[in-house]
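Quarterly update, task 2.4: FE2/S2 (inorganic) cluster-bound model.
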Amino acid sequence: MTALARTSMDGVALRVADTVGWLTTPLMPDDYLGLINPLWSSRKLRGRVEAVHAETKDAVSLTIRPGRGWTAHRAGQFIRVGVDVDGVRHWRTYSLSSAPERADGRVTITVKAAPDGIVSTHLVHRIEPGTVIGLTRPEGGFVLPQPVPSRLLFVTAGSGITPVMAMLRSLVRRGEMPDVILLHSVPRREEVIFGAELRRLAGRFPNLRLHEQYTRSGGRLSLSQLPDLCPDWSKRGVWMCGPPGMLEEAETRWREAGIATRLHVEHFRPVVAASTRGVGGRVRFLPSGQEADADGATPLLVVGEDAGVLMPSGCRMGICYSCTGRLRSGRVRDLRTGREHGEEGELVQTCVSAAAGPVEIEL
Amino acid sequence: MKTLSGADIEEFGRELDNIRDDVIASRGEDDARYIRRVIAVQRALEVSGRALLFASVLPPAWLAGTAALATAKILENMEIGHNVLHGQWDWMRDPEIHSSTWEWDLVSPASQWKHTHNYLHHTWTNVLGKDRDIGYSLMRLSPEQPWHPYYLGQPLYNAMLAPLFEWGIALHDLELERLRRGDKSWGQAFTQLRAILHKAGRQVVKDYVAFPLLAGPLFLPVLIGNLTANMTRNVWGHTVIFCGHFPDEAAVFTEEQIEGETRGEWYLRQLLGSCNLDGGPLFHIMTGNLSHQIEHHLFPDLPSNRYAEIAPRVRALCERFGLPYNSGSLLRQTATVWKRVFRLALPT
Ligand SMILES: Cc1cc2nc3c(=O)[nH]c(=O)nc-3n(C[C@H](O)[C@H](O)[C@H](O)COP(=O)(O)OP(=O)(O)OC[C@H]3O[C@@H](n4cnc5c(N)ncnc54)[C@H](O)[C@@H]3O)c2cc1C
Ligand code: FES
């Protein structure tokens, strides 16, 4: 369907929904249709988990059939998923691990259980096929440009392989494997997510070179090894996804080499300032007026969620700005830098801001 | 009722806090499944009711359709709407079942009702001059309210209020008496009125124009079916709600009595001003668990499906502290409500 046809179809659908809305008021037609099939909703994008595939002892891939409103992703992008754990809705971000060229319209995410992680352990150990989850459309700029550079370097650690796997799968599907070096670091060989597939690909494509670093036996992957592992590292387009420390180190190195634009990084976890201790305060969330006590180290996003406030959120680590609220009074502390700030009317990111005294924030 | 010492009252309050904490700690998947199931059943009932009404050339279909629709509307207002708007399900963080987004199948807009009900009524329960739900500014339900010849007609007013209850609630939310006293500006009232008219307009069009028109030749049966369903819901809601606070034994308080009230005393006032209805699980659901009015007033934001479970604990606590726990059948409580309406129509 052309974009134009789709827009006019959507227009018609909207008008129909509007008319039928007189019969379903105060609800929407969707509220009834959703009972038959939750994926039909045009207001809420949802997906059904069709299969759960174990990748390692503590990582799984979920095959998801997205519902109405889904748009195709670019390899490397992420989505947010809304999952009910013990009856409570949680939203988390996961990179898509499947190639957009996949023929059946399904997508996969690959999740590694974080110790005591609420959502990841649920997805790895408890979710059942058939479960309907909330989705958002793919987003993010951690993608390969078109045309694909002729020489690529991927540096990944642990679950950081997921967006890169999507890129590799996409390159395979399109039959254009450039010169690729993949440096992947994990504690042990058994913990390599997609291990078999990666090794098979390396066998099949001579220009795909794979270096697996097992940190338990071989020590951690250090950037000082780069010249040995990849002599032309400074000439390659680089996509890197791993722990905050590794990414920070790389950013410094590439900046110092004057080639910062070649480096693309994806953070899975926020960089938290060493000292973010501070006094908290009473937080009032507007317009609902719900209130809660916050300590000086917990993000306002979490404070609100725990109090049952409907908090908008996204990456939960200060990059996407889906969580912003307007400060009505009080001051907040940026958990990434420890800096205290806040002027009336300022837009603050609730996921990386803690209360510094009493706060009123409008969502 | 024996008088409790201050320490007793605080101990009573602490025990109730424990009950509350227990429920909060154990809220989970089963509760979420419960409310989603009630919502699914309610919507299915509503669709079936309306479909049956469209087949009402056959009288049994009309009857079944009207009954299904009335049941759906009762569930929607009471077990779902009222409780969702109390924030009982906010903990699930599901934007579709949340107090800040819910709108109900009633002419009054949810936002206005949340103010008069959640805030004014639940905070100031049965406090004269504060709780506007005492007699809904229409009737004299406490001897402390000064008598006026106008009240002679209150049995009639009450009988008329029942089938029109949803309109009464909408009007009640306007707080006309505050307007008269000058506590509220005409501008405020006007904005509110516009919201009511917008909401009520859509409700009226749906039940009394759109669906009847869609039924073509069956315009009249569908119209009457919808009207009957709405009135049935109104009468039922009126009956249950009046049984909650106005049976003869329910206490009324003055503003002086509640000055500097502690948490324990607040609990005590909620207990003494509320009355329960006895019945089975289905009856409780159909009353929106307001049959557990005592538990609801002690813990207005706990999920309604848990009231039945904590009721025995609350009751035992009352026994321990020698406090009354007013519970009776619907018939008995309704009779005492009406006794009060009649008695206080006359000067006392
Ligand atoms: C853009 C982006 C893409 C992502 N893609 C993926 C992906 O493809 N696969 C994947 O498994 N995860 C991915 N994540 C991380 C994911 O969003 C969650 O943060 C992670 O699953 C932990 O969530 P949780 O609810 O289980 O943990 P929480 O309950 O939120 O946290 C529990 C504990 O785990 C720690 N923790 C939080 N995040 C991590 C983490 N990433 N690794 C280890 N410990 C952590 C916390 O510090 C805390 O102590 C991505 C994150 C972002 C921002
Ligand atoms: S959730 Fe993305 S910036 Fe806060």
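Highlight for this quarter: The pocket of flavin-adenine dinucleotide (ligand 1) is lined by residues A 78, 92-95, 110-112, 114, 116-121, 159, 162, 266, 268-269, 315, 317 (CB under 6 Å).
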